[in-house]
Structures are given as structure tokens and as C-alpha cells.
């Protein structure tokens, strides 16, 4: 067995993969949010449709998209493995009596939060990514050319109050997931120092509030505009 295999199959190695894939997904959230905010440009979807087309036709973005799917899969698989090993290693009595005082609610329920977010991701991909790639989408013509009118698909989805509520609630779960995962990833990578850790924790809390809030704001604003 090579040192790579030994490392990746160890508890530390699993946590390292969780941290690295988690940080990549955090970066992806920022980039994805920057693109999605163009839905609120108030131009009938022009900027967003041009953005969506440019992302789909960019070879680098296609590679990043593939990596994103791979990292999501790795993040999910290794989270299941770590949860299983943690349950086996932790005495039941300790888990019941000391968990609430020694850890946050988010850290104790990362598996549950991750499962809910995975369901959201699958629904989200089916409704948007799949439709963009394989669905029958109308086109819109601007001075820059003719583009797939993805904005219309998104706007239609966000006119459904059930989907909007589902989206907002899911972002709430994402906030809890990030509130623990952000700082935990840096700690796993060894970036844990009494001087910098409090700052990383504060940045993590701010990030876990701001990013999901902005994501949730988009469908809410579009729903209200369509009323």
C-alpha cells in the first residue's frame, strides 16, 4: 500500500479531503453567487443570459464544472465515512451527556445538514443545469447575438412560492453548514493559531450569513417582482 493510499484512508487523510473539497466548494459559492446576482440587473435577463452562455462555452469553466461535481461527490462520500467512524469511536454516554456543551449544534449535525443540502443540489441541478444542457430552452436576441433564454426558466421557477420557500430554507441549512465547516477546514489544514483562529472564526460566521442570505434574496426578489 503506497503512502498516498495510506494517507487518504486514514482519519487525518479523510479530514484533509473534506477540508480541501470544502474550501473549493466555498470558493465556487462565491463565483456562482456573483453570476446569479446578475438575475437582479433589471434588464430582462440580458446580462444573465450572456453570462450563462459564456460560462457554458468556456473550456476552463467546463473543467471547473467537472471538478465541482467530483468534489461534491468526494465531500459527500467522505462525510459519510467520517460520520460512520466517529459514531463507532464515540461512546454513547459521552455523546449524550457532553455533546451539547462541547460542540455547536451545527458541528453535531453536519451529516444531516449535508444530506439536506445534497437533496437541494440535486433538485437545483435538475431544474436548471439539466434544462440548460438537455432541455428545450427558448432563445433571446440582443445586440451581442442570440442566446439561450435561461433567465425565463429561472424566472418561471422563482414564480412558484413552494420552490422559493424550499430555496430559502435550504439556504438556512447552508448557513448552519458553513458556520462550522469554514473554520473547521482551516483547522484541519493546520491553520490554527491563537492569534489568527478567532479572526478566521469571525470571517467564517460572516461568510456563513452573507453568502446564503444573498443567495436566498435572489428568488425572493424575483418572486415579489413577478407578483
TrEMBL record:
Keywords: Membrane, Transmembrane, Transmembrane helix. One of its GO terms (cellular component) is membrane. InterPro entries: Cytochrome_b-558, SQR/QFR_C/D. The chain crosses the membrane at residues 16-40, 60-81, 110-129, 161-182, 203-224. The keyword Transmembrane helix applies. It comes from the Bacteria. The keyword Ion transport does not apply. Gene3D superfamilies: Fumarate reductase/succinate dehydrogenase, transmembrane subunit. This is Succinate dehydrogenase cytochrome b subunit.
Amino acid at each position: 500500500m503506497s503512502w498516498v493510499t495510506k494517507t487518504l484512508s486514514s482519519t487525518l487523510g479523510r479530514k484533509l479531503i473534506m477540508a480541501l473539497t470544502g474550501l473549493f466548494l466555498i470558493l465556487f459559492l462565491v463565483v456562482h453567487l456573483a453570476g446569479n446576482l446578475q438575475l437582479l440587473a433589471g434588464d430582462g435577463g440580458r446580462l444573465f443570459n450572456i453570462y450563462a452562455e459564456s460560462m457554458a462555452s468556456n473550456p476552463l469553466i467546463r473543467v471547473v464544472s467537472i471538478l465541482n461535481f467530483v468534489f461534491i461527490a468526494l465531500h459527500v462520500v467522505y462525510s459519510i465515512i467520517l460520520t460512520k467512524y466517529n459514531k463507532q469511536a464515540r461512546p454513547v454516554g459521552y455523546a449524550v451527556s457532553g455533546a451539547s456543551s462541547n460542540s455547536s449544534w451545527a458541528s453535531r449535525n453536519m451529516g444531516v445538514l449535508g444530506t439536506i443540502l445534497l437533496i437541494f443540489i440535486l433538485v437545483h441541478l435538475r431544474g436548471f443545469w439539466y434544462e440548460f444542457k438537455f432541455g428545450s430552452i427558448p432563445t433571446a436576441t440582443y445586440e451581442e447575438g442570440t442566446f439561450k433564454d435561461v433567465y425565463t426558466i429561472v424566472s418561471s421557477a422563482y414564480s412558484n412560492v413552494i420552490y422559493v420557500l424550499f430555496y430559502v430554507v435550504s439556504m438556512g441549512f447552508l448557513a448552519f453548514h458553513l458556520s462550522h465547516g469554514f473554520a473547521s477546514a482551516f483547522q484541519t489544514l493546520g491553520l490554527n493559531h491563537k492569534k489568527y483562529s478567532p479572526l478566521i472564526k469571525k470571517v467564517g460566521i460572516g461568510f456563513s450569513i452573507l453568502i446564503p442570505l444573498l443567495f436566498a434574496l435572489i428568488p425572493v426578489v424575483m418572486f415579489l417582482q413577478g407578483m
